[in-house]
Amino acid sequence: xxxxxxxxxFKSIREMNLELRPLNVLIGANGxxxxxxxxxxxxxxxxxxxxxxxxxxQSGYADALLYYGAKRTPQMTASLNxxxxxxxxxxxxxxxxxAQGTLIFADEAISFSSYQIxxxxxxxxxxxxxxxxxxxxxxxxxxxxxxxxNQRTARVIKSIMQRWQVYHFHDTSSTALIKNPHxxxxxxYLRHDAGNLAAFLYQMQQNSRPYYRRIVETIQSVTPFFxxxxxxxxxxPLLIFLNWKERGGDPAMVFGPHQLSDGTLRLMALxxxxxxxxxxxLIVIDEPELGLHPYAISILAGLLKSISSKTQIIVSTxxxxxxxxxxxxxxxxxxxxxxxSVFKRLDTEELDTWLEEYSxxxxxxxxxxxxxxxx
Length: 375
Hints:
Low-confidence stretches: none
Strand order of the largest sheet: 2-1-4-5-6-7
C-alpha cells in the first residue's frame, strides 16, 4: 500500500506531506488543487509506460507543471513510501527544468528496508540526466552496476506503480468511446474513460461469471428498469457494442448505450470498476458522483468502503451526499492557503462532539471541516 507521499513544487502544491490510508476522499472548493493531486498520479501512469515526456508536453511543459512556473520553482521532488509484506520500499525522484521547457530526472533513487532490520536503508541512486524513468528501463536496471537487492526493489516498485489506474468517466457525449463500437480484444483492464466497457464486460461474462452477475445485480439495485447487457460480437467480429435489454419489456427489443442517461452510463462504469475480479493496486477516481442520483451515490459509498479492504482508493468529490456516507478517517480536506494547496486529514476525536448532532456532510456545508470557498 502507498503509505505516504512527500511532494514539492508540483502545480499548486508547493509542499505536501500526506499520509494515505485504504480509502482517501478529497473534499474542497473548486480550484483548491484536488485535481492537481489526481494529475500527479496521471503523470505516473504515463511515466510507467515510458511516456513521461509526452505527458509533460501535453500538460503545457515545465511552466504549467512547476509551482508558479519554472522561473520561481525550477524543480519538483517526490518521495513515495510503499509497504509490502516484507518491508518498506521508497521511491524518490527529482525533476528539473531543462531546454525547451521539458523536465528531466536530476536524480532517481530507491530503497528497501526489511521489517526484520531496525532502521531505514539509505537511498540508492539510479542516476540522473535521463528523460524517462529508469524503473522501466530494464536494460539499465538489470546490469552489473545495479545490485541484486536494488534490482529486486526496482522490480517491486515498478510492479506496484504499473498497477495504479486513474479514472474519470466524464465524457458521455455522442462521440465518447463508451457509446461506440469497440475492439473486442481490448479487455485486459478497464480504460481510464471506460471506453472499452463492452469488451471488458464481455470477457468477464465469459470467464468470470460470478463477478459479472454481481455487477449486473448491483446495477439493477439502482436502475430497476435494467435487465442485463446483451454482449456479443457485431457483424464485424472484431467489434462489440454496449447493448442492453429492459426488464419487463419486449424480449426481442435491444437498446444501445445512446439510450442510457449519462448518469446511468457512468454508474455502470463505476460499478464495473469496483466489482471486477482483478482490482488495480491503486484506484484514483475524479468526481465519481457526476450525474448520479443520491441513492446511487449512497450505493457508490458502500462499494468504496467495501472494496478499500482489498485495494487502495483515492477519490476527489464535491458531493455532500457521498461525504455523509463516510467517516472522518476517510476524509482529506483540501484548502487554498498562501497561494498553495494544503491537504489536511480530519481528526476523528476533534469532531466527536459535533457528530453527535450533525452529519459529516452537514459539517462540511457549515464550514466546520474547511474545504469551502474563501474570499
